[in-house]
Design goal:
Length: 177
């Protein structure tokens, strides 16, 4: 039986967020974004510690094993800021689906074409981010809020993988899992 690539199994569209869900996301994100760099660094460190194969895309810190060393890396901090700023742009523009789509298309295309990152890493990173947010902000990330954020991350992944499909990305490897 032929193995199908991840991007081929995409649903037709991302499940839209309700107005109430958008409000929940924007409210909780306000608390997270006050500490965006530290939260982003925590997310990336956990991502790289738990999924070391992801470091292959980062020549500046791919050989770092120690989380404390990673935390001091200016390149890692810079990438953490970029990740958090991209999520911030999405959250700030939830009422503007075209803006969200174009921002995530740029992220997806850059990672597919320039960095050659396998799309599965976006799904993994989303899960890591949700874990860190719920652990670091338990008073805001209740079970209901986590479900809404899971829906948002699924939409982010849907948009990003759409960009991969557009540029003809077919390679899907299981090295991440």
């Amino acid at each position: 039986m032929e193995k199908r690539g991840e991007c081929e199994d995409r649903p037709e569209r991302a499940e839209p967020l309700s107005d109430a869900e958008m409000e929940i996301i924007q409210h909780t994100w306000g608390h997270v974004y006050k500490n965006c760099e530290d939260v982003g660094v925590s997310v990336l460190i956990r991502f790289f510690v738990n999924f070391p194969s992801a470091k292959q895309y980062f020549s500046q810190f791919q050989d770092m094993q120690d989380p404390e060393e990673m935390e001091k890396s200016s390149q890692l901090r810079q990438h953490a800021r970029r990740v958090m700023n991209a999520i911030n742009t999405v959250v700030e523009n939830l009422q503007d689906p075209e803006k969200v789509s174009s921002v995530l298309a740029l992220v997806g295309k850059a990672h597919a074409v320039k960095h050659k990152v396998e799309p599965i890493y976006f799904k993994i990173l989303s899960g890591v981010m949700l874990s860190v947010l719920s652990e670091d902000f338990p008073e805001f990330f209740t079970a209901e809020v986590q479900l809404v954020w899971t829906k948002l991350m699924a939409a982010v992944y849907w948009h990003v993988t759409g960009a991969y499909t557009e540029v003809g990305w077919l390679q899907v490897s299981s090295s991440a899992v």
